[in-house]
Design a protein that fits this description.
about 50% helix, about 350 residues, eight-stranded parallel β-sheet, alpha/beta
């Protein structure tokens, strides 16, 4: 309840309708506005968090451990290993402040299914090694929603590793992700570029994808959860109240925590309360899992081809931050600087 009998705090309202996750590795945020369910992160989040002075020890130890463990992981450069160690360490520091899973993103530079599977297995191995007491079932590996990435999720399901399909902009990707056994999908409400370039106009939010995917999963009895990502403002969060999970960035979380509105008015805004929309998005069962050509043709046409380039744009941005993180490890390698 809010300050007045007929009002409610927006963040608390969202928590009553869906699982609210923090899209941040900021400990103070988790302490102040938690408890959150899951903690989602990516290469950009991790790189920027490592620049914060109080994370200096994690940066230093990740470089040192990356060099030490490199012989155990043939074919992996020490700086690549150091980035993975840092990402796991950062997530594990937040794990004690949340009730659910940590989401660690696999290396977006990797292209083949085999490489992505090996990367996820390495992340799991590092997770166990860095904190033997950490409950490994709380690890979820984020994988880019390419054909190869989602086929990797299929194999990882068999290996007992939870996955989330990220950089997802189309129903074709959502369907394939569910078939592959992903625990979650993360439909991006906005293009990723909109978060890094304030002058960029992505044409507005795609809210309906979350509704359509969740309706499809319910209709065809998939256990995959829809985790809405890439929300920019309070209005979008109200419209998506009722989605399985919603991951929110710090600025939006703070704004929601300070705002109150009439509960009846908020409830009326949700797309998940719209029975007509659910009926409109009813969709016959489709299978892509074993036919790359059929999937590729459908994905190519989706949203008049926009889904494909939005996906690649997001992957390119994550690759850029992966490269920045690798450079950061090399810059902080005292062993290398002494050679």
């Amino acid at each position: 309840m809010g300050s007045y009998p007929d009002t409610i705090n927006l963040l608390e309202y969202l928590r009553s309708k869906c699982k609210v996750d923090c899209d941040s590795l900021d400990l103070k945020l988790a302490e102040k506005l938690g408890p959150f369910v899951d903690c989602t992160s990516n290469q950009a989040d991790s790189y920027l968090e490592l620049l914060v002075p109080h994370r200096a020890e994690i940066l230093r130890s990740s470089v040192s451990l990356g060099r030490k463990l490199r012989p155990e992981y043939p074919g992996v450069q020490y700086e690549e290993l150091a980035v993975e160690i840092a990402m796991v360490q950062l997530s594990q520091t937040v794990a004690q402040l949340i009730t659910g899973n940590i989401h660690v993103m696999s290396n977006p530079l990797l292209k083949s299914t085999k490489e992505i599977v090996e990367n996820a297995q390495r992340i799991q191995s590092l997770c166990r090694r860095l904190d033997p007491d950490f409950e490994i079932s709380r690890l979820c590996v984020k994988v880019v929603s390419t054909w190869e990435g989602l086929q990797a999720c299929r194999r990882l399901k068999d290996l007992g590793i939870q996955t989330l399909a990220t950089t997802l902009f189309t129903m074709e990707q959502a369907i394939l992700a569910a078939e592959a056994g992903c625990a979650y999908i993360a439909p991006f409400v906005h293009e990723l570029k909109a978060f890094f370039d304030s002058t960029y106009d992505d044409g507005g939010p795609n809210l309906k994808l979350c509704v359509e995917a969740q309706q499809y999963y319910n209709q065809h009895s998939y256990s995959t959860k829809v985790l809405a990502a890439g929300l920019l403002n309070e209005e979008e969060s109200k419209r998506l109240a009722g989605v399985h999970h919603m991951t929110l960035a710090p600025d939006l979380l703070y704004a929601l925590s300070k705002r109150e509105e009439k509960e009846e008015e908020i409830r009326a805004m949700s797309l998940f309360n719209n029975a007509r929309m659910e009926k409109e998005h009813a969709r016959d069962f489709t299978s892509f899992l074993n036919d790359e050509d059929i999937y590729a043709a459908a994905f190519e046409k989706s949203y008049e081809g926009k889904g494909k380039w939005k996906t690649q744009q997001a992957i390119d941005i994550f690759c850029e931050y992966q490269l920045k993180a690798l450079a950061l490890m090399r810059e902080n390698d005292t062993y290398g600087s002494q050679k």
